[in-house]
User: Fold these one by one.
Assistant:
Number 1:
Amino acid sequence: MIRLENVSLAFGDKVILDNTSLSIKKGEIAIILGPSGAGKSSILKIMVGLWQPDAGRVLINNKDISKLSELEMLPLRRKMGIVFQGNALFDSLTVKENVAYFLREHGGIKESLVNEKVSEVLSFVNLEGTEKICIDELSGGMKKRVAIARALSFDPDIIFYDEPTTGLDPINSKSILDLIKRASSRGATSVVVTHILNDAIYIGDTLSVINEGAVVETGTVYEMLRSENKFVKDFFYEVFQDAALLQNKIL
Ligand SMILES: Nc1ncnc2c1ncn2[C@@H]1O[C@H](COP(=O)(O)OP(=O)(O)OP(=O)(O)O)[C@@H](O)[C@H]1O
Ligand SMILES: [Mg+2]
């Protein structure tokens, strides 16, 4: 479904992605996990065609998008929902206006169906009745739900989430993660970028651990826990430490 083959990217002397490869299967929730500055958001921008790599191929459904212009990307972009870290909503517009605007922008929907679709996705993210509220009056968790509703509104094949729980409290984080799982069961492939290990373990079907611009390991949580890679071991140390602490508390 999505494949990065030997992708490299640099800004001047600074190497951002270093000959890295990655493969994501249709329908799964794929996590791109790594520390701050590892290159996670850069990978996401390359996958959605916002950035072009200096070298390598980016395949979406076997089509190489790595050299496509913005215009050529448009039909493909219509099949992609993107939930940006900062949500990228229009703060002075209402919830309904935000979702409807995007629906119209993406095109292909009859005006008479816009209202129905907006209601359907808002109800899916548990935001029914908020249509007329301005974005800047909403809590962080609710804004994230609007961003997800907007991404779902045109029934994308792939949804990309960049750090979907950053800045949210534990209760809101969990409900956003549960929403990502439910959204995935509508049929789309989900790509979730995060630095939060617990989130990755909770929702991920497969995890790709990245460090310094390259994927160091891909697999299930179980495979990660058995990895011999030094960086993966260090990154997952927290899991073992939490388990040990919990056991000490209980025993
Ligand atoms: N437009 C840019 N110009 C130059 N350097 C950039 C640009 N965007 C990102 N970088 C650099 O590329 C590296 C990877 O950045 P990226 O945003 O992909 O990391 P990340 O893993 O998403 O980090 P975070 O967890 O902090 O969001 C960082 O060192 C960053 O400073
Ligand atoms: Mg980032």
Note: The chain has a mean pLDDT of 92.
Number 2:
Amino acid sequence: MGTFGYDGNARGATPWERMTPLGIQWGNSPKVVFAETCAGPGGPCSREKLTEQWINEQAVKDLASPPLNFDHLGYGGRLAGPVDNANASCMGCHQTAGFPMVPILPEFSPNGALLKLDAGRRPGVAQSFRMMYYGNVASGAVFSDTQLYSSDYSLQLSMSLQNFISVRCDNTAQQPDARPAVCAELIEWSKVQRKSIGDLLTFGSPAADGAPIRSNE
Ligand code: HEC
């Protein structure tokens, strides 16, 4: 995944020619935790250990003074888009692409709230959970076992599927026979997902008195 930024001071007759490559990322450098790249939440960060990307270091310097800015570095110095969450990475978000959609950032997941993740203020905590998002999922593979289909890094496609399904599977708006076959599959999907959470709660960690935790259905 790669991205460009506009550098008004660059050589080039047209604006297109003044677009400067900012970086390319082909992996998340999964073993490099936050403490290995950044001294603290506000940096400074060294990108040397992030070997699965190339950052245009000249552009980092050239775009440093306002009104230009080089704001496309994300979590721990990984490449992220100029319009994307500054604490994420291209691959981190895009490798979650699939259907049904799952949270695209650790902060957005239910466990992220439980772990009180805050990449702005405390990017170094809960690495074992957070680094799940900075592993490398191969294209065509799903990110989570709750997903049925990969959309091959395309988040636009996963959002489109999500929208299509919410409209076409709505049984108040559609005649049952007008619904696509995937709607029936999703009803089964929601049952097995509920069951698996139920099983986890029932047979997971024992409660205080030694009894299994039971879900309050
Ligand atoms: C914070 C998460 C996040 C980050 C980081 C991110 N993206 Fe995205 N990207 C998205 C989402 C969500 C969409 C879909 C938006 C929509 O359809 O409205 C998207 C859409 C895209 C698309 C359109 C194609 C598609 O279907 O996915 C491209 C291309 C893309 N991003 C490239 C990049 C590149 C290159 C980077 C890094 C420089 C990057 N993105 C970083 C979340 C992210």
Note: The mean pLDDT is 89.
Number 3:
Amino acid sequence: MPAEENIVCVKCTSVLDRTTIGGVEVDICPQCGGIWLDRGELEKLGAKDNSELDTLRSALGVDETKAPPIPSDHTSPCPVCEGSLHEHQLGNIQVDICDSCRGIWLDKGEFDQALAVIKEKGLPVELILSLANSVDD
Ligand SMILES: [Zn+2]
Ligand SMILES: [Zn+2]
């Protein structure tokens, strides 16, 4: 296990707040409301009760007055490993996924949409993405 290091926000460089939701450790940006999920965590959160997820939603629903993060159309370095984040289409949203550790960065507001996609498909993110790539329209 890596040392407990502070993870820095991909979009606004604030230090992320680590919080545990139903036993899943997530890292939330207090500034822009983005969230970092290690591989498999989105699926775990998808299995949680709404009451537990509400805790997360309220943690994400920070400071509406702050400007939204700048959408990135370029790759950014992964906050936890040596890899870099690439955008992938997940349902109607673009999510940033590390090409190395497969962690996922979700901008503010993307969490529920991403969750809706995996619940609707009933598949893990990785599988949804590979299916989307194989049937490219
Ligand atoms: Zn941020
Ligand atoms: Zn990574």
Note: Helices lie at 41-46, 50-60, 110-121, 125-134.
Number 4:
Amino acid sequence: MKPVTVARRDDVQAGRPRLVTVEDTRLVITRVGDTVYACADACAHKGGPLSEGKQSGTRLACPWHGWMYDVRTGQCTFPGRGAAVAAYPVRIEAGGIVPELP
Ligand code: FES
């Protein structure tokens, strides 16, 4: 997929997940300190919107039933151990966030 800038890093605040769409792919963008992460937005449980969830550090809770994810890896940490959402590498180019989608 052609790389695109989805947001400015300065416009994404820690603890405030943000939904972006790249072509038909919905991503949740999160920031922890100066590091930005990108994961698929649809929860592995029943597709809840992770971008509307509560973020605490590297942990992001799905707003529908509370499954917890590690935004660094996309791995579910509770209670759906072994489940995961796709996590994508992120480049910062001239202050812009560029997720690297396959
Ligand atoms: S849909 Fe996310 S916890 Fe159920």
Note: The longest strand covers residues 25-32.
